[in-house]
Design goal:
The protein is of the alpha/beta class. The chain has helices at 8-22, 46-49, 56-64, 84-92, 110-115, 126-138, 140-146; strands at residues 29-34, 37-43, 75-78, 97-100, 119-122. The chain has 7 helices and 5 strands. A 5-stranded mixed sheet has the order 2-1-3-4-5. Helix 6 (126-138) packs across helix 7 (140-146). The longest helix has 15 residues, at 8-22.
Length: 149
């Protein structure tokens, strides 16, 4: 864990990432926060569900369902920089801010999100880096499949 306490959004995302890992999947977690409250959570279920679309952010947004007032003003958290699929969902739903745990192991699409007016904050958290580095080292075939290599 980091030396400083994490906010509830990143704490929830990390819990989801660990749950995904414990289920035998890709350890990426996400949460959605509006008005300071975690309103949805999710994790990558690609392996568990045999579904290439169920990335952590997509799972989280599905779990949020239809929100009264929509997603505008919400913050999407992810333990890893979102890919173009998930970045596109953030743009599509008008997410205002995306906070990520790290982008060292996967650079994702931050400039795409920024070009569409989304504030992107990269916390570069050691626990997120370690979670992904361990997974990539132990399961390179799953990682390469997930990122389309």
């Amino acid at each position: 864990m980091s030396d400083s306490p994490l906010d509830p959004g990143m704490t929830a995302a990390l819990e989801e990432a660990r749950q995904g890992r414990d289920e035998g999947g890709v350890p990426i977690g996400s949460s959605l926060v509006r008005d300071g409250k975690v309103i949805a959570r999710g994790h990558n279920r690609r392996v568990q569900n045999g579904d290439p679309i169920t990335h952590a952010e997509i799972d989280c947004l599905r779990n949020a369902g239809r929100l009264l007032g929509g997603f505008r003003g919400a913050t999407l958290y992810s333990t890893l920089m979102p890919c173009y699929l998930c970045s596109g969902a953030a743009v599509q739903f008008g997410i205002a801010r995306v906070v990520v745990g790290e982008s060292r192991t996967f650079s994702g699409a931050p400039e795409f999100m920024r070009s569409h007016g989304i504030e992107v904050v990269n916390l570069d958290l050691p626990e997120c880096v370690e979670l992904m580095e361990t997974f990539i080292r132990e399961h390179p075939e799953l990682w390469n499949e997930d990122i389309g290599v």
